[in-house]
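@channel anyone free to eyeball this complex?
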Amino acid sequence: MNQIIRFCMSCGQPTQDRTPEGDNRSRAVCGQCGEIHYVNPKIVAGAVAVYEDRVLLCRRAIEPRKNYWTLPAGFMENNETVAEAAQRETREEAEGEVTLHGLLSIGDVPHIGQVHMYYLGDLIEGKHSVGVESLETRLFSEADIPWDDLAFKTVTETLRYYFSLRARPGFVASAPGEPYQFTAQWKPDR
Amino acid sequence: MNQIIRFCMSCGQPTQDRTPEGDNRSRAVCGQCGEIHYVNPKIVAGAVAVYEDRVLLCRRAIEPRKNYWTLPAGFMENNETVAEAAQRETREEAEGEVTLHGLLSIGDVPHIGQVHMYYLGDLIEGKHSVGVESLETRLFSEADIPWDDLAFKTVTETLRYYFSLRARPGFVASAPGEPYQFTAQWKPDR
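replying in thread with the prediction:
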């Protein structure tokens, strides 16, 4: 996970690992201009995109976990919200458009410096097709989810949580913009 | 917000702004070794730390918004969870220890590439004192919150939301590890 910053991104001179004054962690500090380079966790945003009673999964065309099934998700970019990132990733990986409800899950993945956040959404008209980072996209009913071939633990947990929620009597997805009623979070593996 | 990456952090040679193959955004790409430098949003994690009916605020010793009041919060680091970051920031900014309940709010701040996440917590024994980035720390009752002197919009929104929740009949903070019952999210200013 730790990006290795050997050279200063401002002046191109070598960095040194040291703890800046007033800080308590080692950072890559430029030996020439003094710039401090911070490396922080990244957000992976995605969607549980539902059509009728089925959920959209994508078979990954790229590493890590090539060939395994995942929810559409990817790195959030600057200048967008978490929700917009989830919609964009669904578009890029599965050529689907989603109307979002509330945030369904937040999963810390500290050993690789990531936080995964999944929204619940409706896949418009059930339309999807294979995006650039996918080998295949498909709508799965709960009985058909390929549990042993899911790509990431946060995908498995999010799907399990979604199906457990849906099974509750009277379950209604929260409206966009409302306080989220059911965001789950789990203890990470360490 | 956009960190300017003029030089490659791997080899120190100048970068060029261009859209890598298979991507759809301009990135700083090394002209020498081809490394692509991604810049993604950062998570700011913090706590609404409550003792009896009062909330802990810190008056900022540093820019931006020096002298204004804030909830203890700061950039999440690698190798920690969002919850651990909220606890660490409360320790660093206010020398307080918090037992956390659920996640209270998520605030997108896309124009500066940040996502702010606040937990609800109990400030142990009500103890706090001035941390390195604070000029003053104090427990405020709802009636005394310095609304006009709060540092950030996400702080104002999170406090308003907390007080509105607390006013509901039968309000009980969700237990740690339980699905979060009341996480709020707002449309960002654009």
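from a first look: Chain B touches chain A through 56 residues (CB under 8 Å).
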